[in-house]
């Protein structure tokens, strides 16, 4: 008998807020399939407030309330059975982050869980990441966000180590990242990857997805270091307006894409990686998978 479930994930990041609606189909005696039914992205840059002023502005507090109200109605329309809302770096660092979560809960019934970088990395690891990893190879997974970047090292199908750094694109844009942090990340990557050879990167985040889409490559094909570096040079040669008009980028993508590309290139250089795979998975996908795994475990009890 075919079983169908509808779950939702809300990802409240530093550069945008997303609602992912997923339909999970469970054929009898077969593995379940996860289909992205709908993805809504609202460009609320909470990080621009928080990383400069320490709190979310009154304007963005109201925008968040409106967005969460809209998300609540969309989930109702889609007849969502289970959902989870996770907030990362910006709300975590905001003096009024919990206040906003309390207001949203009161207004919409949506409970926002403010998670740390390690929890974020663990949720992402709940995705199909392991199925993408070839058992005998080593990968450095790099998830670049507006407020932080999560690094996870996989080898021989196992998670070796994971670390979150406050190296985010919105922080970099606002000159909130010291040279000492770049050096700390470099030291950590070099130390952790030193025992391994032939490391490949796995890139996650809206910026690397955008770069991969513009490359015209087939799904599953990696981007080379040379390609990414040449694209980085192109981005730097264009003005913000040119990136929007000539490359067709969204206004909230055209600025953060440069620091994001720098992070990926730096990680590749420090880990001696020559290519980056872009499977288009992230926190929202991990939330859906973790929700499903929790339900399956509960049903087996």
TrEMBL record:
<dbReference type="GO" id="GO:0016462">
    <property type="term" value="F:pyrophosphatase activity"/>
</dbReference>
<dbReference type="Pfam" id="PF02541">
    <property type="entry name" value="Ppx-GppA"/>
</dbReference>
<dbReference type="InterPro" id="IPR050273">
    <property type="entry name" value="GppA/Ppx_hydrolase"/>
</dbReference>
<dbReference type="InterPro" id="IPR003695">
    <property type="entry name" value="Ppx_GppA_N"/>
</dbReference>
<dbReference type="InterPro" id="IPR043129">
    <property type="entry name" value="ATPase_NBD"/>
</dbReference>
<protein>
    <submittedName>
        <fullName>Exopolyphosphatase / guanosine-5'-triphosphate,3'-diphosphate pyrophosphatase</fullName>
    </submittedName>
</protein>
<feature type="domain" description="Ppx/GppA phosphatase N-terminal">
    <location>
        <begin position="44"/>
        <end position="291"/>
    </location>
</feature>
